[in-house]
Amino acid sequence: MRASLQWMRALLNATMARHAIAWLCLATLAACVILPVPIPQAGGPTEASRTNVPLESPDGIVRGQTTRADVLMQFGEPDGRGSDDQWFTYESQVRRGGVRWAICVAAGGPGAAVGGCGKVGHWLAVRRMVVRFDATGTVADVSLDSVDCSSVDDTDCPSSRGGDLQQADRETLARQQAETLGPLQASYPSAFVSVGAKGMCHRSTEGSAARGALEVRSHGLDWQDWQGQQHLLAWDADTAIEGPAKSVFFWWVDVRTRDGACTSFTVHPKDVHGIPGKSVASELRDLLLRLRDAPGAT
Amino acid sequence: MRRFPIAVVVLALALAPLPWPRAPGVARAGESASAPLRLDFLDEPGITQVDVSARLGQAHAAFIRDGVWAYRLRGNATNGWIVIARPSGKHAATGESWKGVDADLMLQFDEHGLLLRHALLPVHAAGATGQ
């Protein structure tokens, strides 16, 4: 139901689509209805929100001079804080006045019914201040964003806790760790990674698998698993690179490190539809061999 | 005289409500305390983290590296303040809401735990006021 509401909301952002939905609702009056929701013209802050967030970059914060303690004493406890207090977020949410619209959907039959309402358009004006600090705890940067959005639970409003900033921090850290394996040589947008027991290669899409791209770097491979955990596999002259070997539908390249651990990879390039053939795996194996044997690679 | 059964006495003691010490003016999340607090004591010289803990309870947030504690308060300077305790367990996730909070009390201590400065910041006003 929630997914369908989000889908409808996205559609309603376009004027033509708004008309189309209106006609659709008229045609199936029992299924959905668009309701006007009056909000006092003045609007006002939401109950759960603070209001002491400035409109412009405050004079009291000077880059390179103001300390983290100064910021805390001036603006109070932040809504969000980064790892090691590298940044703080302060957010204010104000309900926009006037008539706002909601779409309500109901479906079901005798004995069972489901329904719900979703906000259409921008109900909120959100202002967020992000203060970043350097390693000495002094202000490095201040930014203020004002966004009209519909719901703090959705992705269109900035996260008061700085969830987007935390995600960006994780990505930066992952990139820095990956760069320790040298420059990027190739990237596969979709891959399965199967970690075998010692001395054995597992070669299965079940279990551990890459979530995003598999990156091939000068001195190793890096990928993220389904939990978002980053994995690095560095190779040296003793690393065995074997395959491709077929298991069920997929061709796998095995990388066996000096300690006997075997990690198997099957990759899917962007331009190949369906299950890639042996040639794709062979190309990966050749690339890994070339990088392992390159002068100064290890 | 008939002797009172020992088992009844033990049971009565076991079920008797025990007083649980709580600093006046400190409320559990969503609760109101009976005696609102005044913050005048913060202006006295030599106030330490221990003094503050004894009066206000556990801070809502602590910024250890900077020696800063944050308390969320409900009320006003005239009628006194109620400290809104930090939610625990499954309610901790709701800690970001400022609903029912009137002011943020920020306290900075030095490395010895001595109060350096404090600020009482209204969270639902257009500006912040330091003390």
In short:
The complex is a heterodimer of chains A (298) and B (131). Chain A is an alpha+beta fold and 298 residues long.
Describe the overall structure:
The complex is a heterodimer of chains A (298) and B (131). Chain A has 298 residues and is α+β, with helices and mostly antiparallel strands. Chain A is built from five helices and 16 strands. In chain A, strands 2, 3, 4, 7 and 8 form a five-stranded antiparallel sheet that branches. Chain A has a four-stranded antiparallel sheet with strand order 9-11-12-13. Chain A is flat and about 70 Å long. Chain A starts with a helix and ends in a 5-residue tail after the last helix. The model of chain A is unreliable at 1-17 (pLDDT under 50). Chain B is built from two helices and six strands; from the N terminus they run H-E-H-E-E-E-E-E. Chain B has helices at 6-15, 49-56; strands at residues 26-27, 61-63, 68-76, 80-84, 103-109, 115-122. In chain B, strands 1, 2, 3, 4, 5 and 6 form a six-stranded mixed sheet that branches. Chain B has 131 residues and is of the alpha+beta class. In chain B, strand 2 and strand 3 (68-76) form a beta hairpin.
**Unreliable residue stretches of chain B:** 91-95, 127-131
Alpha-beta content class of chain A: alpha+beta
Number of strand elements of chain A: 16
Mean pLDDT of chain B: 78
Class per helix and strand makeup of chain B: alpha+beta
Q: State the assembly state of the protein chains.
A: heterodimer
Assign an overall shape of chain A.
flat
- Sketch the topology of chain B as an H/E string, one letter per element: HEHEEEEE
Low-confidence stretches of chain A: 1-17
Percentage of residues in strands of chain B: 25-35%
Overall residue-averaged pLDDT value of chain A: 80
Strand content of chain A: 35-45%
Largest binding interface between chains: A-B, 23 and 27 residues
Rg of chain A is 26 Å
